[in-house]
Amino acid sequence: MNNEHVQARKTGKCRFCGQPLRFTFVDLGMSPLCESFLSLEQLNQMEVFYPLHVFVCENCFLVQLEEFVNPEKIFTEYAYFSSYADTWLKHAQNYTHFVTERFDLSKESFVVEVASNDGYLLQYFVQKNIPVLGIEPAKNVAKVAIEKGVPTLTEFFGEKLAIQLLEQGKQADLIVGNNVLAQVPDINDFVRGMKTLLKPGGIVTVEFPHLLRLMEENQFDTIYHEHFSYFSFIAAEKIFSAHGLILFDVEELPTHGGSLRIYGRHADNGTLPITDGALELHEREVNAGFKKIEYYSEFGEQVKETKRKLLSFLVEAKRQGKSIAGYGAPGKGNTLLNYCGIRTDFLDYTVDRNPYKHGKFLPGTHIPIYPPDKILETKPDYVFILPWNFKEEIMIQMAGIREWGGQFVVPIPEVKVYK
Ligand SMILES: [Zn+2]
Q1: Cβ pair 387, 333 in contact under 8 A
Q2: Which of 273, 347, 413, 419 has the most CB within a 10 Å radius?
Q3: How many helices and strands (H and E) does the chain possess?
């Protein structure tokens, strides 16, 4: 019934294979863009909401959102600075050591990172005297990287830019793309660009949240308008291989609630055989049901139940007269709060370490954002952790709340209190 309704709306086409999208993965209702924080003056103005309705392609099984907003609008003043999360910096540093060793990178090599943000990763290659180039469309973020000594082009990456670099004699031994693939509207152009920019013996590593983990752990709040696609390993293999890149290895990482790091190379580079790990994950996804359309349709009900449990907890806490403050103002928090209808009726305020967000308000829910010290001043009964992927780090940073009997609440995979 639901799918007939969707069909009647004549929705879009799969951004990889062009098949019309008919099957719903999950429908999270209407939400504002998750990074569009509001100033005090903007609270009285109209706010734009777009559907957060996710589809799955019945042909290639790419899970995807329709594109509502021009990426230029989203990314040219992007507020996310990677360097504000300590564990993410540590992750970047470990990766640099590991990949330099495994693929013998040296001062003769050339490393390109697509969506290089504020230079959080490339700075560690610079420390090793390995030549780098960052590509980052958000001007304010790229500026920070350049000030750190990381050469950065303020551009969108795709085949056109790859050809320009190639014509300047630039080809990469390593191309890195962390948490960018989901945000690319024209995925075919992007992967073709990687193919073009890669030296014959070079490798590509790409990290993205793993759809398997998103589904297993109810991470529906990682769905937002800025993330157009949600990948299984199988879907990624299909997309890269369509452009002459073979995924020869894969690692499962704990970052962002469970990510994959895929390793790609040119299809004709036989020196890097496909590993057992890659074969095993492919098999595991097939066995889980990732090649059957029915498997995807169960997710929506699971999400509704997660919402009901979270709201039950919050209603009960407020009836008991408890005060609740948020911690963090990440994109995922905005999806969760808007979908569940959680506003200042439940959360008095939230805090964030990023000074860019202080004095602003969360989009849609209008919850105010303060510096973290606000929690120490107001001593709430519960601290509701929105970036649950950093929960261990946050519980250590904010351990002081236990002095007044404060407790942490984590909403995902389902609501849980940590004493
Ligand atoms: Zn498709």
Answers
A1: yes
A2: 347
A3: 15, 17
Q: How far is the CA of 48 from the centre of ligand 1 (A)?
A: 29
Distance (Å, whole) CA 59 – CA 293: 9
Quote the ligand 1 centre to 62 CA distance (angstroms).
Answer: 6
Per DSSP, the residues of 43-68 read GGS----EEEEEEE-TTT--EEE---
Confidence of residue 67 (pLDDT cuts 50, 70, 90): confident
Distance 56 CA to ligand 1 centre (A): 8
Q: Which bin fits 242, alpha (ψ -120 to 50), beta or left (φ > 0)?
A: alpha
Supply the DSSP symbol for 274. Answer: P
- φ, ψ of residue 166 in degrees (nearest 5): -60, -45
Q: What pLDDT is stored for residue 79 in this prediction?
A: 52
pTM of the model as a whole: 0.88
Distance (angstroms) between ligand 1 centre and the Cα of 223 equals 18
Give the distance (Å) from ligand 1 centre to CA of residue 61. 6
Task: State the pLDDT confidence band at 7, using cuts at 50, 70 and 90.
Answer: very low
- Predicted confidence (pLDDT) at residue 5 exceeds the cutoff of 80: no
Q: How confident is the model at residue 2 (pLDDT cuts 50, 70, 90)?
A: very low
pLDDT above 90 (res 1) = no
- Give distance in angstroms: CA of 191 to centre of ligand 1: 15
CA 58 to ligand 1 centroid distance, Å:
7
Instruction: For 390-411, write each residue's pLDDT tens digit.
Output: 899 999 999 999 999 999 999 9
Q: How far apart are the first and last CA of the chain?
A: 44
